[in-house]
Amino acid sequence: MRLNLEQESALVGMILGDGFIQSTSRKNARLRLEHRADHKDYLIWKANILSGLFQGQPKFIQRKHPITRKIYSYVRQQSNSSPILGEFRKIFYPNGKKIIPDNLHKLLKTGLALTIWYLDDGYYYPRDKCAYIYLGRTSRREAEIASKTIAEKFGLENKVLDKKNKGFVIYFPRRVLNKLSAIAGRYKIPEVMLYKLSF
Hints:
CATH superfamily of the largest domain: Homing endonucleases
Structural class: alpha+beta
Number of strands: 8
Strand order of the largest sheet: 1-2-4-3
Strand content: 15-25%
CATH topology of the largest domain: Endonuclease I-creI
CATH architecture of the largest domain: Roll
Helix content: 25-40%
Number of domains: 2
């Protein structure tokens, strides 16, 4: 199959966010989506965007925290294996570890990519009236690539902050949140995720 512009953008947002691309052969790979159980509608929404890659229904799984022994429930869905995903794995996992690639400006094509990235890894803080996208264990250089791309592609003023043990984040000040909301508002986001856009 071929992906249209919005599907490709959605895929990029998923990879930058919570999605994981697993190699299945030298050329092929599959996409795994996983969210907490009460976000099932969000997972289904994402899988439906890439309906040509996904079949079947999501599965519920449980994990026990090794220290607290608390049980956590998740929902997971994996795509079919595809050479398309194999190509994206080469871009985002060149050495087996996920990166933010140098050519992100060519990949982050529409607002859907940013919207999914934010819904996956973003947080709104009502007290400070600001928002973040957590980047995980990226390098400062990768974080700066992400920051510059978001500013240039979407006109969203931001800056990179070092949250130490939490890694780097993209910080969005209050004055750009309406613009971020307008970008996300172009898409029919599942109600369960609207809390992240409560600004």
